[in-house]
Write a structure and sequence with these properties.
By secondary structure, the protein is α+β, with helices and mostly antiparallel strands. It is built from eight helices and 14 strands. Pfam families: DUF4429 (PF14472), SHOCT (PF09851).
Length: 304
């Protein structure tokens, strides 16, 4: 098993998934501390980015396939130091990090697309039940329904009189999370199916729970991501992350007759040979063994 230690987490790769264990000390990022650990299957990884910067520091980021990132589904535009799928480190571990990135990238490229995106979304999301206390009250999600309870010191009079409200998951179209800006509250907002559009005063918005500070924002993001990952999402309803537009959709292919595989195209051949050349480079640089190279080469050629 390959292991990579970074500035705020340790990543381990067993050939099938990346297991991430976050630092949880008092100086750790609130979201990382709340998560503790997470697992990213290779079939969920759309791209692996490895970059170096000044003084040979490095950054390794996993880009999940469209529609699978539970934090992006909740609308979270996360800062780099909060991104759960980004690891940074110093010059001393740069070669190890680059090798690690190559191993994960190769596995992701050779892994077919997931047959069940819903299963993957749930696997990547925070576990349920989840229950958090923030400035305005409590948010709880058990996998079937979301309960908002306004019993906090920041709750308005109208919300305190309402006390609580339950929203079945099947009745929600989406969930929105947003951090506080310029000293304002952050919030979690539920959007029921068929709800009218238009602004609503926060003091009387019974679909919203307000939070204050980074720790509470991280807590509400966990709830939002857990909800978003389990919604019955249609592809057209998936929100794209602000910093990375979704790739253009490919035209639908005509199904082949039963038992007949699609023939490889010239583009498929070129991609395969490019992958073999890349593996050869890794072998020549001593990053993989001759046995590993021959095994991967045979696997790729057998697909032609």
């Amino acid at each position: 098993m390959d292991e990579l230690r970074g500035n705020h987490a340790t990543w381990r790769f067993d050939g099938a998934s990346v297991d991430i264990t976050y630092d949880t000390g008092w100086r750790a990022n609130p979201l990382h501390r709340a998560l503790g650990q997470t697992r990213v299957p290779a079939e969920a990884i759309g791209a692996v980015e490895f970059r170096t910067s000044g003084r040979r520091a490095w950054r390794l980021r996993l880009r999940l396939r469209p529609g699978l990132d539970p934090y992006a589904l909740a609308g979270g535009a996360l800062r780099p130091d909060t991104d759960p799928y980004l690891l940074s480190g110093t010059a001393g571990s740069q070669l190890t990090a680059e090798y690690f990135a190559d191993q994960v990238r190769t596995a992701a490229e050779l892994t077919p697309d997931a047959e069940s995106p819903a299963r993957l979304r749930e696997l990547l999301a925070p576990a349920v039940p989840v229950h958090v206390q923030v400035a305005e009250g409590v948010a709880a999600f058990d996998g079937a329904a979301v309960t908002l309870e306004w019993n906090g010191s920041h709750a308005s009079g109208a919300k305190a009189r309402q006390r609580s409200k339950e929203y079945p998951l099947a009745g929600l179209s989406r969930v929105v999370w947003a951090p506080g800006v310029s000293g304002d509250y952050g919030y979690l907002r539920l959007v029921p199916k068929g709800a009218p559009s238009g602004p609503v005063k926060q003091a009387k918005d019974f679909t919203t729970l307000l939070c204050w500070g980074k720790k509470q924002e991280a807590s509400l993001l966990l709830v939002a991501a857990a909800i978003a990952a389990r919604l019955d999402l249609e592809p057209r309803a998936l929100p794209a992350a602000e910093s990375e537009p979704a790739p253009a959709a490919l035209p639908a292919a005509t199904p082949a007759p039963a038992g007949v595989a699609d023939p490889p195209t010239a583009d498929d051949d070129q991609r395969t040979f490019a992958r073999i050349r890349e593996l050869g480079r890794l072998r020549d640089e001593g990053l993989i063994t001759e046995t590993e190279f021959e095994g991967k080469k045979k696997e790729l050629l057998d697909r032609l």
